[in-house]
Amino acid sequence: MLAIACIKQVPDTTQVQIDPVTNTLVREGIPFIVNPYDTHALEESLRLKDRYGFRAVALSMGPPNAEAALRKALSMGADDAILCSDRCFGGADTLATSNVLAAAIARIAREAGDEVGIVFCGKQTIDGDTAQVGPGIASRLGFRQLTLVDKILALDMEKRIIRVSRKLEGRHEIVEAPLPVMITVVRELNRPRYPTVPMRLAAVNASVKVWNNEVLKLDVNSVGLKGSPTWVSRIFSPEREKGEIIGDGVNDPEGTANLLIDRLLSKDLLAV
Amino acid sequence: MTIFTPLFLIALGIFIWQCGKKLSLIRLGRPENRFDNPALRLWEMLLYAFGQKRVVARPFGLNHFVIFWAFIVLLAANGAFILEGLIPGFRLANVLPESLYHPLVFAFDIVSLLALGAIVLSFARRLLFKPDYLDSAYVSARSFEAFLILSFIALLMLASFGLNGVKISLGIEPADFMPVSKVAASLLDRSGSDLEAWGAFFWWLHAGVLLAFICFLPMSKHMHILTAIPNCFFQNLGSISTQSREEFAAGNRYGVEKVTDFTWKDLLDSFTCTECGRCQDACPANATGKSLNPRQVVHTLKANLLANAPALKAGEPPRVPLIGAEGEGTNTEETIWACTTCGACLQACPVMIEHLPKIVGMRRHLVEMESKFPEELLNLFENMEQRSNPWGIAPGERTKWTAQMDVKPFEAGKTEYLLYVGCAGSFDSRSKQVTVNLATILDAAGVSWGILGKDEKCCGDSLRRLGNEYIFDRMARENVALLRERGVTKVITMCPHCFTTLRNDYRQYGIELEVIHHSELLKELLAAGRLKLNRQVGELGKVIFHDSCYLGRHNDVYDAPRQVVATVTGAPPAEFDRSREGSFCCGAGGGRMWMEELTGTRINLNRVTEALEKSPDTICVACPYCMTMFEDGLKDKQAGQTRVRDIAEVVAEGMRPQA
């Protein structure tokens, strides 16, 4: 059975600035990282590999340099890594992206002669923040979708049922679904492993498969910019209201804390 | 031929067989070149082994000095004794002229008495005034072995006095040159018993103990009399806090997983340890109730090697794991992570055992081969790899501190010094104040300096000490390439960790930088009169100086910061009871800065308590880690009246214009 982790290479958003003239992200010289939530998705696919013998495959769509993200997945222990990369995939919104990834997942299963048990995605990416690609993939593949999962409570391989905990605002929800499922994960799910040096060295020389549209054979009107009903009209940094410094936290921490609590209470920002 | 000859040959055989066994075990270690610079090695060996330099650093070491030199002198006496046993009728007096023989037997007699006295004191120390550090989990100060060895030596001395007494009474030896044995002779004379019988008794007592000692020696901790001297010869001549490089290639293993992953010198170390406990006494982790005891790390190595010897020699995997189990011969992971790499153990060891590389070697295995480390380190490792600083702050913020002043980038040819600000000096709000102060002082003194700005990266110190050599190696190569590209030759650092890494570790990457710690530069600037002091230093009050491990012990910078304080305040700083070479770590070195301290008491509180006993107004430090640890400790102790100041801040205070 296959466990597929969808990962995205994103700019390290703590280092991204917005060009005030063009309203676009200044990406020059900004290091790329694996979307942090996706590393938890990847880790969970590797745990299924360790525990149940799943074949763990890491999948990404992006420009050729997104290969680095997949190498990281290989260094952590993924059995296979596939990058969907084609000029015609560029400029995709979440719908077009999920079209490509769903097609790739179907192809992975066909090529492996195996079935997909679980597709893992991060709950959202830190650059787009839409949280739509995972559910989009599930819809296209006809999988059940379990979003915001913070714990896999049980996986019955005989009955092919998975039970998970979903982390919602102020509560947890325990749900069950039959396989195959698409799961989006939150950080609390696990702690991603740190690759060993031998695994890192092996990943440097391992091959990352690159699938372009000649391989996936998708209708060009369903992918990339052409297949994207949404487009970004403007990106900007919101103006932030300047705060004020109250009290003297260094010399009078207690008094300052009281002052802060009073202030928060007066603005009705603290529940009593 | 008497029966002595076969007995002696048997003893000698056992001795050689046992030594050969130990040597074959030492040869199981990985290769390492410790034969370079033989002249210096010889000198160091004379100093530390024969001169007993470290041994006498503690008062009771004098006792050992006496026993050691008595042993050397009496080797000749015992050699003569053995020849007497082997060759019927042999006497030293017959082969030496009287002018040589008389002073020699006089020396034997006196030295034997001194040795006997020292042995009595050693007995008393173990029985009556035993220091705590003499005991460890697996070795008791009052062990049978310890007393057996002391008894052997005492019996040898007593037997030789008895034997010489008989010989004096029989007129064979000159009474006038053997004042101690003469007393024995008069006692024997007065007893009126059979002198021949007494003579035979003492001779065989001496022979029996000597032969037993020869057999027992290579099986006991007394082995150190054979290994300590070569161990001092083979000591590390380089920087002890600098670990060896690793070669990263497919198929390689990294770090120390099993005992044979250590080098032969590490294994020799384990047979050299005398269990004196000085490292144990000096270790900050041990003093605060952690499971780490440097002496035990060395003992564990030996115990593991001996327990696994049959399997290892048969080419089988070891049966007792070196890491991760409980009991003798294995280190828990907690033990391995407790080390601050402060080097106090190395400094304390009289026979130059190197504990630190063993611990870092095991860390390397855990990090690089197994990815097993305290969970809080995962963030550190990721932050270092992605953003080249321990906190994971955006690299763009590295120059935020320069907002308040005009700071120029380093330009080769135009700028003399690179100020390598370091991660703490760039990102930590308290340390940024130090950076600004230092920058202001440098400008005031007219020093030509510049920075790398946003291109500066972390030096990688914590990673290397934590065993993450793979990422350290990558960072070191990038940094060395950058420093070369920019034409940097002279570097100022504020952090002793950057200091040691740039100065010592990067040398392995082929760059020889002239690295100066800011305390040294400040001393030079003050001495040259380039800084105008106003001596309005009342704010500082009583200043005590804390030696950072990586500045002091690891790089021998002790006097510069003290001279700076003395120049600025007009008086030398107050001293901790544990200072200079014997300084006690703040608790943050070796990557401990980034880890929780979950067992025992806190190391920084131990040091802060020691500081407060001297009631200082200002604790002067020269390291950003020490700064954090002291400030945290003072808050914990609610000692708000005591401040922590970096050495640069002390100078800035001295330069403050009069109000």
Task: Provide a descriptive summary of the structure in words.
The complex is a heterodimer of chains A (272) and B (659). Chain A is α/β, with parallel strands linked by helices and 272 residues long. Helices cover 30% and strands 26% of the residues of chain A. In chain A, the strands form three sheets. A nine-stranded mixed beta sheet of chain A has the order 11-10-9-12-8-1-6-7-13, with helices on both faces. Chain A has a two-stranded antiparallel sheet with strand order 2-5. Chain A has a two-stranded antiparallel sheet with strand order 3-4. In chain A, α2 crosses α5 and α3 crosses α4. The longest helix of chain A is centred in the middle third of the chain and has 19 residues. Chain B contains 27 helices and eight strands. In chain B, β7, α26 and β8 form a beta-alpha-beta unit. Chain B has 659 residues and is mostly helical. The mean pLDDT of chain B is 95. The interface between A and B is medium-sized, with 17 and 23 residues.
What coarse outline of chain A follows from CA principal-axis ratios? Answer: globular
What structural class results from the helix and strand content of chain A? alpha/beta
Give a short account of the largest sheet of chain A.
9 strands, mixed
N/C terminus separation of chain B: 96 Å
The number of helical segments of chain B is 27
> Taking all residues together, what is the mean pLDDT of chain B?
95
Strand order of the largest sheet of chain A: 11-10-9-12-8-1-6-7-13
| Overall morphology of chain B | elongated
Helical coverage of chain B, percent range: 40-55%
List the helices and strands and how they pair.
The complex is a heterodimer of chains A (272) and B (659).
Chain A (H helix, E strand, L loop, with lengths): L1 E5 L2 E3 L5 E2 L6 E2 L5 E3 L1 H17 L2 E7 L5 H10 L3 E5 L9 H19 L3 E7 L10 H9 L2 E13 L4 E8 L2 E8 L2 E5 L11 H9 L3 E3 L1 H4 L36 H14 L6
Parallel strand pairs in A: 1-6, 1-8, 6-7, 7-13, 8-12, 9-12
Antiparallel strand pairs in A: 2-5, 3-4, 9-10, 10-11
Helix pairs in contact in A: 2-5, 3-4
Chain B lengths: L3 H23 L11 H13 L10 H26 L5 H4 L2 H30 L16 H26 L9 H13 L3 H22 L7 H10 L30 H9 L5 H5 L1 H4 L6 H20 L19 H5 L6 H5 L7 H14 L6 H12 L29 E4 L1 H6 L1 H16 L4 E2 L10 H5 L3 H17 L4 E4 L2 H10 L8 E4 H10 L15 E3 L13 H11 L4 E2 L27 H10 L5 E4 L2 H13 L6 E4 H9 L4
Parallel strand pairs in B: 1-2, 1-3, 3-4, 5-6, 5-7, 7-8
Helix pairs in contact in B: 1-8, 2-9, 3-5, 5-6, 6-7, 6-8, 9-10, 10-13, 19-27, 23-24, 24-27, 25-26
